[in-house]
Amino acid sequence: MAKRVAELLVDVLAEAGVRRIYGVSGDSLNGITDSIRTRKQIEWVHTRHEEAAAFAAGAEAHLTGKLAVCAGSCGPGNLHLINGLYDCHRSRVPVLAIAAQIPSNEIGSGYFQETHPEHLFAQCSHYCELVSQPSQMPRVLEIAMQTAISKRGVAVVAIPGDVAMRDAVDQARRLHFPEAMPAVCPSDDELHILADLLNRSKKITILGGAGCAGAHHELIELAGKLKAPIVHAMRGKEFIEYDNPFDVGMTGLLGFSSGYHAMLSCEVLLMIGTDFPYQQFYPKDATIVQIDVRGEQIGRRSKVDFGFVGDTRTTLKALLSKLKQNEYEAHLKESVEHYRKARKSLEDLATPSAGDQAIHPQYVARVLDQLATDDAVFTCDVGTPTIWAARYLTMNGKRRIIGSFTHGSMANALPQAIGAQASHPGRQVISMSGDGGFAMLMGDLLTLGQHQLPVKIVVFRNDSLAFVELEMKAAGILDFATGLRNPDFAKIAAGAGLLGLRAETSDDVKPMIAQVLEHAGPALVEVPVSRQELSMPPAITLEQAKGFSLFMMRAVLSGRGDEIIDLARVNLLR
Ligand SMILES: Cc1cc2nc3c(=O)[nH]c(=O)nc-3n(C[C@H](O)[C@H](O)[C@H](O)COP(=O)(O)OP(=O)(O)OC[C@H]3O[C@@H](n4cnc5c(N)ncnc54)[C@H](O)[C@@H]3O)c2cc1C
Ligand SMILES: Cc1ncc(C[n+]2csc(CCOP(=O)(O)OP(=O)(O)O)c2C)c(N)n1
Ligand SMILES: [Mg+2]
Question: Are 294 and 209 in contact (CB under 8 A)?
Fold first, then answer.
């Protein structure tokens, strides 16, 4: 008997190693979910919102580097995927979305639930095509998969429910090869130019990012030869920060003053595998060199004097033998010392509060860092949880951090934790959730019970959209539209079948986080934390405040305000 198109689709995915599909069912998807039902290799992970399904698939792809899949039914069903898919696409993780479509003979009639996925998903995918007849399968599916994998990002296959139910006509596969892993390297001439420049320079700073994954050894050797401090961009944290004597922290508004200064005080800035987006933080006078595997990334964020196309590991391996040992040590020493001080000052803020005073969120993050397992996966919501994750989580080469760092969408942490846990059942997965972000996709708390996913959730409850309040302050605007009247999250968690705890004082933080982490099933602890933890400079005058937002873009939130004052003097009183 001939296979149906839906069965062929599921078989091709299974053969390619796909083990689960995240989504919400619906009639146009029935052929596909029915085929999943009859096949053992692929699990249907039933989320409560398609956006959560897309975020979950993205987290799986981030952790495995392999294709992950989500699906939505026609019209509103797949429309709900969109924000999560934007996140996956912009984070360059390979995700295939199956967007079911209305009956093929109704397309163009304004039919019930009609949308045009080819248009809707165009901006958040490398490839988006409609399967309008069985003979297109499995070719369209295979092109979509290959595109998502090789271009790193999203591919969408839109398929009407009736086409999925028809007999497949061409069942031959095309992809009979393992994933291509090319070694991309600048030419010999280019390597000589680069080596020559570096050999002539004394004060070199490296800015590394996510593109340094898999090249830790080479990066450290490079920094040793160049005597260069290494600053990292947020997405590079998990790959760069650990076992790194050259580490001087992150730059950017949420970074460390040491990262900021190491970038501004160098003669040569060597950018490697990073797309750090904030132009204001790049040095104006230094010579800037950028290495990226994608040529189109070079020069996007700052003027670049030398651009090289290559993957980090191959390029550094080829470069290292051409480099002389830099004997100038002062730049590195000063930067590392600055980092030590900045680190110490941030550690001082991560302390328990006395009695029933508001709990510092830094302390919560610090305790979480101390108690989490060696190979924990952390997800952090956009908002202040991103700050606490950036500053207080210690990486070790095994731990991972996932956020919505490029797309910057709220409510990412819980659904990303779902994907991380579903794909890595043995690992501890911790969602650092904001109270705003958590409530936004709270329905997917139920997915933890439904699939018995033992995710641990820490809700940073500040009864506000605190990050936005911070932005308002920085812009000199009064807080408005940011207060949250919150429910008892611990009770909501308990109602959903989780262990639900609520800390009252700093004394509760450690034992409760420990209890949650040790609990066998899913668990949540809400911690009421102070609302405005990052103090602004106290001595800013009205006159100075006019330039405050401009200046803030150049400054680093040290957490105390003192660092900002220094920069404010420099920038505002000039
Ligand atoms: C609320 C909020 C605040 C934030 N504040 C900060 C902040 O203060 N500081 C900060 O750093 N970030 C911050 N971010 C994150 C920021 O928006 C960026 O996402 C992040 O800085 C980018 O990190 P990246 O350059 O490592 O990664 P990406 O943007 O992913 O760039 C990676 C680059 O590496 C290249 N690449 C990939 N693979 C390879 C390879 N094998 N070889 C060579 N090149 C390769 C890619 O082509 C790409 O150009 C914040 C995010 C949020 C949500
Ligand atoms: C979907 C979406 N809506 C709005 C925003 C703008 N925004 C950025 S951070 C933030 C506040 C997040 O609040 P919460 O989750 O409570 O974290 P907090 O900063 O309070 O710790 C908002 C509204 C966004 N990034 N994404
Ligand atoms: Mg909040």
Answer: no
